[in-house]
Design brief:
Blueprint lengths: L7 H8 L19 E6 L8 E7 L2 E7 L31 E4 L3 E4 L2 H19 L4 E5 L5 H15 L4 E3 L6 H11 L16 E5 L3 H4 L1 H12 L3 E5 L12 E3 L6 H14 L5 H7 E2 L1 H9 L3 H8 L3 H13 L3 E5 L1 H4 L4 H14 L9 E4 L18 E2 L3 E2 L3 H11 L13 H9 L5 E5 L3 H4 L3 H10 L2 E6 L11 E4 L8 E4 L4 E5 L12 H11 L11 H12 L11 H7 L2 E2 L26 E2 L18 E6 L15 H6 L4 E4 L1 H6 L7 E5 L4 E8 L7 E5 L13 E4 L6 E2 L3 E7 L4
Parallel strand pairs: 6-7, 6-16, 8-9, 8-12, 9-10, 11-22, 12-13, 16-17, 17-18, 23-27, 24-26
Antiparallel strand pairs: 1-2, 2-3, 4-5, 4-18, 14-15, 19-20, 20-21, 23-30, 25-26, 25-30, 28-29
The structure holds ligand MGD (2 copies), iron/sulfur cluster (SF4) and molybdenum atom.
């Protein structure tokens, strides 16, 4: 059944995005605050402390929250404008239903709930339980992440549950588990300040984790050296001590060569390797099989620069390694992550003051959201859904029998493939915009058109929700209590500031009502977010992500608590592995041998150029929130193609000119931004826009075999001029 969004123009008129909204009288004209609410930013994984100014039932502005230790009042351009979502004309104020040929019309909650529940029931009777999928997101609090997982497994009773962290954190998660048996940055950011060498791979720190920039600068003020590995000279890389302009997809070769140099020049911590690790011999053999010259040829980084990086790292007194999606969004994302960890373990610089390692989490609750069981293979506490003991424990907490607990389902991109194949018939989504954020958007669009029924829960009508039959008007971050876990592993408190406007409801109340109407209300008797958190604490107890000792009260008193915190009275764990007892079965940190392999697509005669994609400071993810905030739109109104002058000249492309970019999946036309800060064989497009401006029209549906993360950071394309000179 074709379900193209009907009357796009009417939809835009009704639901935007309206880019230039200002309240009558302007933002300043909304008067003085009646109260200040101490909470955290709704956007990235830094989870900066912020105070919201509240007047009546409106958030009218913000004040810095100087005492919160992570950011001490500092905020980035997105944080200081997030309040501009309040009162936005695009806000969905009542449940919506699709009216063919018209668009969407408001409906009653009763109809929206009962039609959704009927659709689930019909599909499950006809095609089985797993014909219904639930997709979730980690802008949600820990409580909601936990609740969606339980909702899918206990109320909908489907195995097909996954989340948008699949596009984000899973390579890091899988690599961390392989190496340490536990998935969290090993240190709080305070240790960055005492590091003498900081190496950042595949992360545009200044634009994507702006407050981390401050930590790195403070370390540099004390003499730290900075190595950046990125095909682009990002803002932070402009002043670094050594920039390695790696060819996209070649990090594992580069890291193998660095390890080889550490071995050959004996810059290893032999004692640490002997006493506290396993797997070094295989890893050493793999490193010695990669010559520095070969790594240089594969990665496009000069031999002398690889040597210099290895020596800076090898000889450092203390060090911190950080990486993000630049190395993780690959079909070898997990290999890249463990290659980074191999360098850390080889030098034994972990679990000590000034010595650490971490992946910089992405979404607001990118850390907590990947622990509490809305991943297809996971149960709360970062437990394994295939492990009989783990299943038994959670089934007991939930009051169901183990046999009732569904088995492992498919990762989000494969759920979309199963929808495309007609095997999954009904979709319930919350906090996810896959039409913009999954690779190969033409494929995603085809899949969405095939659904028998789709219900989305959101506060704005995102591009995917335009394919929904019903849209349930959910809540903004500031409209519900909860907790979230930052990049540091610090569990923090999200404070409710206002009620949802109009007939919109909290996400929690929507899920609870659906559970009740599915006949499973007895398993979901919560009176508050804190009730859910208290159940989560018990569910996580004994798991690797143990939150048992954390309470709302403690979080507020202590400015957050670092997990693991297994007992009431336990101080929390800002720095892991001080005792050298790793969370693996043998208690040792594991080296993992990696062999370089090419990406799913490599340049050829027809598609000779590498495309990589990512972010800009003023926009956030699929843009549904930030493309509605005028002040952020002004900073970067539309996507563009970053291209090196040498490459541009080869194709007669000049700065500001329209250029066409084509891959095997699709094409788009955007303005060229000619810059010397990118490799000449690579172009870069920021991905925050939808429709004809969406970078994911071009990207490849190829996944890491272990983590199933899509290869957002490498596709091959051809380019041409799209307008006369
Ligand atoms: N402003 C802003 N901040 C955000 C977000 C946002 O949307 N906007 N999103 C948040 C989320 S969810 C995430 S996941 C994080 C992402 O944070 P980052 O991972 O830092 O951001 P990206 O722009 O995706 O990619 C980072 C860098 O990887 C580089 N890169 C590309 N390919 C390769 C490669 O093969 N190897 C190496 N070494 N580098 C490569 C790119 O040039 C880019 O500079 O940001 C979070 N913060
Ligand atoms: N080409 C390319 N594609 C990428 C990436 C890339 O680097 N390149 N990065 C990937 C990464 S790292 C990520 S994290 C994904 C992100 O991709 P998505 O998760 O699809 O992007 P979001 O914009 O966060 O979409 C979430 C939706 O949730 C809604 N939302 C936010 N908070 C709440 C809430 O509290 N309640 C409810 N009910 N709804 C809420 C927003 O309005 C929005 O519509 O994109 C991925 N896609
Ligand atoms: S750095 Fe992240 S958490 Fe902090 S204000 Fe900016 S977007 Fe918000
Ligand atoms: Mo992300």
């Amino acid at each position: 059944m074709a379900k193209l969004p009907t009357s796009q123009e009417k939809l835009i008129e009704q639901f935007g995005p309206h880019l230039k909204y200002e309240p009558p009288g302007g933002w300043q004209g909304r008067g003085d605050a009646e109260k200040l609410v101490k909470t955290h930013c709704c956007f990235c994984g830094q989870q900066c402390g912020i105070q919201l100014k509240v007047k009546g039932n409106s958030v009218i502005g913000f004040e810095p929250w100087e005492e919160f230790p992570f950011n001490r009042g500092k905020l980035c351009p997105k944080g200081v404008r997030r309040y501009m979502q309040d009162g936005h004309p695009d806000r969905i104020l009542a449940p919506l239903k699709r009216v063919e040929g018209v668009g969407f019309a408001e409906t009653t909650w009763d109809e929206a709930f009962s039609k959704t529940v009927d659709a689930i029931g019909e599909a499950q009777t006809k095609y089985g339980k797993d014909s219904v999928a639930v997709l979730s997101g980690v802008s949600l609090t820990n409580e909601k992440s936990y609740l969606v997982g339980k909702f899918a497994r206990v109320a909908v009773q489907t195995a097909e549950l996954d989340y948008n962290g699949r596009l984000c954190m899973v390579s890091a998660g899988a690599g961390n588990k392989k190496a340490f048996g536990l998935d969290r940055a090993s240190n709080s950011w305070a240790d960055i300040l005492d590091a003498k060498v900081i190496m950042c791979l595949g992360t545009n720190v200044a634009e994507c984790s702006p407050i981390t920039t401050d930590y790195i600068w403070r370390a540099r003020d004390k003499g730290a050296k900075l190595i950046m590995v990125d095909p682009r000279v990002t803002p932070l890389a402009r002043t670094c001590d050594l920039h390695l302009p790696v060819r996209p997809g070649a990090d594992s070769a580069l890291l193998l060569a660095m390890l080889r140099i550490l071995i050959e020049e004996d810059m290893l911590d032999h004692e640490f390797i002997r006493d506290h690790t396993s797997g070094f011999e295989e890893t050493k053999a793999a490193a010695l099989a990669m010559s520095v010259e070969e790594a240089s040829r594969i990665s496009g980084v000069r031999v002398e620069d690889i040597e210099q990086a290895a020596r800076m790292w090898g000889k450092a007194e203390s060090s911190f390694l950080l990486h993000a999606r630049g190395i993780e969004h690959h079909t070898k994302g997990v290999d890249n992550v463990v290659s980074c960890i191999n360098l850390v373990l080889a030098t034994g610089r972990i679990g000590k003051r000034g010595c650490g390692y971490g992946t910089i989490t992405g979404q607001g609750n990118g850390q907590g959201g990947r622990e509490h069981g809305h991943k297809c293979d996971q149960l709360p506490g970062n437990r394994d859904i295939t492990n009989p003991d783990h299943r038994k424990y959670i089934a007991e907490v939930w009051g169901i029998s183990e046999s009732e607990l569904p088995q492992k389902g498919h990762p989000a991109p494969e759920i979309m493939e199963l929808i495309h194949a007609g095997q999954i018939k009904v979709l319930i989504s919350i906090c996810f915009n896959p039409l913009v954020s999954l690779p190969d958007s033409n494929f995603t669009r085809e899949a969405l058109e095939k659904l028998d029924h789709y219900t989305a829960i959101d506060f704005f009508l995102n591009e995917t929700a335009q394919y929904a039959d019903y849209v349930l008007a959910g809540s903004l971050h500031e409209e519900e209590d909860g907790t979230s876990t930052s990049a540091e592993g610090r569990v923090i408190r999200i404070q409710k500031a206002v009620d949802p406007p109009g007939e919109a409801r909290t996400d929690t109340s929507i899920l609870l009502e659906l559970a009740k109407r599915l006949g499973r209300g007895q398993f979901f008797r919560y009176q508050s977010s804190e009730d859910i958190f208290n159940e989560l604490r018990v569910a996580s107890k004994g798991g690797t992500a143990d939150y048992y000792g954390i309470t709302y009260e403690r979080i507020e008193k202590e400015y957050g608590v670092f997990w693991p915190c297994p007992e009431i009275g336990h101080p929390g764990t800002p720095r892991l592995w001080e005792d050298r007892k790793f969370a693996t079965p043998d208690g040792k940190a594991h080296f993992n041998a990696v062999t370089y392999r090419p990406s799913a697509e490599e340049p050829d005669d027809e598609y000779p150029i590498i495309l990589t994609t990512g972010r800009v400071i003023s926009q956030y993810l699929s843009g549904t929130q930030t493309r509605r905030i005028g002040a952020l739109v002004d900073l970067c109104p539309e996507p563009y193609v970053e291209i090196h002058p040498t490459l541009a000249e080869q194709y007669g492309i000049k700065d500001g000119m329209d250029m066409k970019v084509e891959s095997r999946r699709g094409s788009l036309v955007l303005k060229a931004k000619v810059v010397t800060t990118i490799r000449p064989d690579t172009i870069f497009i920021p991905y925050h826009w939808a429709g004809a401006q969406s970078a994911n029209l071009l990207t490849n549906r190829a996944y890491d075999p272990v983590s199933k993360i899509p290869e957002f950071k490498k596709a091959v394309v051809k380019i041409s001029k799209a307008s006369p000179v």
